[in-house]
Specification:
- The protein is mainly α.
- It is built from four helices and no strands.
């Protein structure tokens, strides 16, 4: 561990640590949603780029690339959401009093 990380852990209370961890996991879920949106845009761009070039090979490449990009982004997003859920469960098991720690 770096000295900055150790200093951060020394000055952070259990409550702050748990709340920050849950917030980071929620951020991971939000990034997963954005990954799906980016995948849709990239797939659409691949198809439109293929049609704008106009040759048959370009259209075929765009049509093949679009679902590949979209599926990759969707599976990446599913993996990110699953990882965030796993981290939440790990945090809950490490801090059995997590409900009291996140209360205002």
């Amino acid at each position: 561990m770096t000295s900055e990380r150790i200093a951060f852990l020394r000055k952070t209370s259990r409550k702050e640590y748990v709340i920050n961890a849950f917030n980071q996991h929620e951020g991971m879920r939000n990034r997963a949603q954005w990954l799906i949106a980016i995948g849709i845009l990239l797939a659409l761009a691949a198809v439109l780029l293929g049609y704008s070039v106009g040759s048959n090979t370009s259209v075929g490449t765009g049509v093949i690339a679009a679902p590949t990009v979209l599926v990759s982004c969707i599976f990446g997003a599913i993996g990110m959401k699953r990882k965030a859920n796993e981290l939440d469960m790990l945090l809950m098991s490490a801090y059995p009093d997590w409900k009291e720690l996140i209360e205002d």
